[in-house]
Design goal:
Length: 124
């Protein structure tokens, strides 16, 4: 089985030893996406950060030739479950009529003190 790394065109390389996404066996495995844009900036607030995470996922899906309607599983890491409703409202704008399976887990801290991080698995 061949593994193909996928990255967002123009995005900075990860600072740790991981690929933004890996295509393998008909699937795309997307690493957790922080709410960081192409310039390295992070927006304020859970809604804006969720939107940036989803835009990063969208860009990786597109780079691999797939889209949100092929996402089968997401995991959302959130630092404050009291912000679940705001996060969920933004998340819902991106997923299709058949939303993927999902877990949402409250964590004590995320890299760069982000409020949310989202990973996904999609069909390619």
């Amino acid at each position: 089985m061949e593994l193909e790394p996928i990255a967002i065109p123009g995005a900075p390389k990860p600072i740790a030893p991981f690929s933004p996404a890996i295509r393998a066996a008909g699937f795309l495995f997307i690493s957790g996406q922080l709410p960081i844009d192409l310039t390295g900036a992070m927006p304020e607030g859970i809604a804006a950060q969720t939107r940036q995470c989803m835009e990063n996922l969208k860009a990786l899906l597109a780079a691999a030739g797939t889209a949100f309607d092929k996402v089968v599983k997401c995991t959302v890491f959130i630092t404050n479950m009291d912000e679940f409703g705001e996060m969920n409202a933004v998340y819902a704008q991106y997923v299709g009529a058949v939303p993927p399976a999902r877990a949402c887990v409250e964590v004590s801290r995320l890299a760069r003190n982000a409020l949310v991080e989202i990973e996904a698995i999609a069909l390619v």
